[in-house]
Amino acid sequence: MVKVYRKDLDTFYEVSEERAIELEQAGYSRDPSVAGTEFSGGGGSSSTKPQGPSFDSALATARALFGFMPEEVINEYAKQWIKYDDTELAIAQTRQSDAWNKNFSYLKRDDGTLIMSEAESLSVKASYAETLREVGITDSSQFDNKFNDLISGEVSAAEFQQRVDLVYNQVVNQIPEVERLYRERYNINVDQPTIFGALIDDEISDKVLSGDIQTLQLQAQASIRGFTQSFARFEELRKAGLTTEQAAQLYEQAQPLIDLATNVGRELDITTLEDAALGDVSASDNLKRIEAEIASSLGGPDLGAARTRTGEISGLIAD
Length: 319
Fold this sequence. Notes:
Layout: E1 2-5, E2 12-15, H1 17-25, H2 55-66, H3 71-84, H4 87-94, H5 98-104, H6 118-134, H7 144-152, H8 157-171, H9 175-186, H10 192-200, H11 207-223, H12 231-240, H13 244-263, H14 270-277, H15 281-298, H16 300-310
Antiparallel strand pairs: 1-2
């Protein structure tokens, strides 16, 4: 640790080497002889020492220590330092102020303890932003509230990286198709980073738009496999509980099963398969009868081979 002094203080502070360098820029010195010299008069007599540092010196120190903070928080710290003449007490009281709560309340747990310091939070947010840049989102300003929520939830930068990677790997192949459908539905161009941003943060879009994007994901799963239906139908499926993962399985297996049904003289359409996937009793019973006829037609040993070639048809029916 390093001792630093100021001419308007007759004491010293022990700080790190890095902090000492910063404070020297604000008027501190490592020379103990400068301590309190501002209060010495001519001929060896002394004047009355003012209580604590002046506001200008306090503000200069606050900016040297916390230059990354909003100005209103810096001003609050300077006021508290004048009051207490102690850096630790000053920052502790600053963290109780309205100015601090306005900007950093997300750092405080319910019990009043800090999740991390203000500087550490900026470092973590920078890591969050870098993770988003890796998936094409170069402007992370729209994620400010999301970042605050993540820190409040004590989500580390590494965990956020894992979450984003997981979502991105699940949807990256769908994004071009969603982009096309979005352009067709709204007659506007939406880039891939915006689409992905909406998928990982609902606040980027309002609730309706967020729902539309989820619906378009379902539509994309169908259209890339050759099934075209109205947006209203996919909106209905989304509201009924069909997820993107279920849709991927459903439409991947649908055409082979429809072909098998045709081969045994049965009519099977995509609507029946969709309803069965959502647990509709009538559609599920109909699908089971068709599967039984397919199994009977193919025969026992051959059925397993057929299922291997065409997909697990029983997986289309919800449990």
